[in-house]
Amino acid sequence: MTSRPPFPEVSALSIGGFVRDDTPTPEVDRREAVLASLAGTVRELVDAAIRTTVDDGEVHRIRDDLAGLVDRLRASQLPGPAGVRFNGEMRAWNWGNAVVGAANAIAPPLEVVHDASGCHADVVLGAAYEGPPGLVHGGVSAMLLDHIMGVTASAMRRTTFTGTLTMRYRRGTPLGPLRLEASIAREEGRKVFVVASIADADGVTVEADGIFIEPAGLRIDPQEQTSA
Length: 228
Ligand SMILES: CCCCCCCCCCCCCCCC(=O)SCCNC(=O)CCNC(=O)[C@H](O)C(C)(C)COP(=O)(O)OP(=O)(O)OC[C@H]1O[C@@H](n2cnc3c(N)ncnc32)[C@H](O)[C@@H]1OP(=O)(O)O
What we know:
Blueprint: E1 3-4, H1 10-15, E2 18-20, H2 25-51, H3 56-73, E3 84-86, E4 92-93, E5 113-115, E6 118-125, H4 138-154, E7 161-169, E8 176-188, E9 191-200, E10 203-213, E11 226-227
Parallel strand pairs: 2-3
Antiparallel strand pairs: 1-11, 3-4, 5-6, 6-8, 7-10, 8-9, 9-10
Bound molecules: Palmitoyl-CoA (PKZ).
Residues 86, 92, 146-147, 150-151, 154, 156, 158-159, 161-164, 189-191, 211, 213, 215-216, 220 line the site of Palmitoyl-CoA.
């Protein structure tokens, strides 16, 4: 008799784009490390491109070199976005995610840590995330908070989508080292109310509260076990 982890059938997961994928965890880890290494260098490239002061001719030569690299990566591509996949050991991977995607150079990436009160993350935001001079773009703050709040609401046991997100920008958030914190304030049925903040060394810069909803069609019964 084999006990199966508490996953819905593939067809149920596919409703929300979540896909059961039985790639073994060591293989997922190995490939993730390879893609994260590439994304790290691309992230450096983005920062270097923003801040470069080399002359126009050098910029054009670098552009041409990069176009060749893009062609090499395009030699074999997914037909669309990377999506979210899970294997039977509850190993999840979302390599294209805008906030935590291991393969996504646009993602800082945020490394979310679960703690006793919810989740936190320490992140250093550089020139690619600027809005007002020297300050984090307000939309970037909202994006990062949305993600950590969603992870907090999901609590590693359910899938929730952002229903409503309210931000209060108390003062400018400087680029550089920042700490995000999120916790669940209360729950009502499928609704999870989450509060969160961003802080620099001098204290809170942004506060957020949000309602995260577990869509009826994606509800997972953690007690469900199937024997074969
Ligand atoms: C194996 C498992 C491991 C999983 C581990 C994965 C962890 C992975 C973490 C990823 C973390 C990602 C963090 C980023 C999160 C996003 O960025 S999500 C993307 C942005 N959000 C969206 O695209 C959501 C779009 N909207 C929707 O899909 C649907 O409108 C919703 C929000 C799911 C609600 O749909 P619904 O389930 O049909 O809701 P419905 O039955 O009408 O209403 C249910 C209740 O919610 C209320 N409600 C409905 N809509 C709203 C709303 N917008 N605002 C407030 N309340 C609302 C209703 O009033 C109702 O309340 P009650 O009457 O029960 O009191």
